[in-house]
Fold:
Amino acid sequence: MARPASAIVNAMSVDVEDYFQVSAFDEVVPRASWEGRESRVCANTERLLALFDEAGVRSTFFVLGWVADRFPGLVRRIADGGHEIASHGYGHRLVYEQTPAEFREDVRRSKAALESTTGTRVRGYRAPSYSVVDRSLWALDVLIEEGLEYDASIFPIYHDRYGIPDAPRHAHVMTRSGGSIVEAPGSTVRIGRMNLPIAGGGYFRMLPYALTRWGINRLNDVESRPAIFYLHPWEIDPGQPRIKVGSVSTIRHYRNLHKTEGRLRALLRDFRFSTIGDVVIGPVLPSSAAAEQMWA
Ligand SMILES: [Zn+2]
Structure:
């Protein structure tokens, strides 16, 4: 079997939410109905854990606080597998549709739910639908104040719901008036004057896998930079209940669900991956208690 050609370790990430919680369904799936719907997030996340385990890959899991409160056992299983637990907010509300005070409350609630479940500090945050855009950059100040070390919510592309097209393409430190935070943007390759998203989500499902492989190779070999890949548990679940929504959202959500698991296996074989925290900041050093145990 071919081994990864590049020595560069890329970052793997999963936004842990259920199929009915995606922003594209906000208009047709009232939040009040979430509780009563068939939940598939545990089974789908367990399958991802098995795939990562098989490949020896550790990933970051941005878990929704709503999911953590209902399925704490799932969060513990992810953490026990050596993966990084990070925050995807609490109620999957777009950042730019919240006030700074509402956003702070949402971040606090999710961080507290995750930290009390695992006993480990949360270092990273990713906004629902990459909704840190020009008009919601204040979110970074809130994240710094709430003790987050990195944010992974800015996509340097044009898109109808998100994106800061001229944002830096690689992980970098953002200095704000109240401190600094590492920004870990969605990965793109530069084609002429455009940034083309090449590492995850709908792009991974809709476009041929060869394009993802080419894009990550280009980042690794030509730019010597890691890719930051992302996907959702529902993206490997062709059996999920169908929700009636407009044609664009239908294509974006349902296209090629049956192909994603096979593509993910290929991706895990073709490239090296670790958590976003490890890739953009560095591994967490063992706490003194853990270190004492190690040397005991
Ligand atoms: Zn999400």
The domain at 12-295 is CATH 3.20.20.370 (TIM Barrel). DSSP finds eleven helices and eleven strands in the chain. The first strand starts at residue 9 and ends at 16.
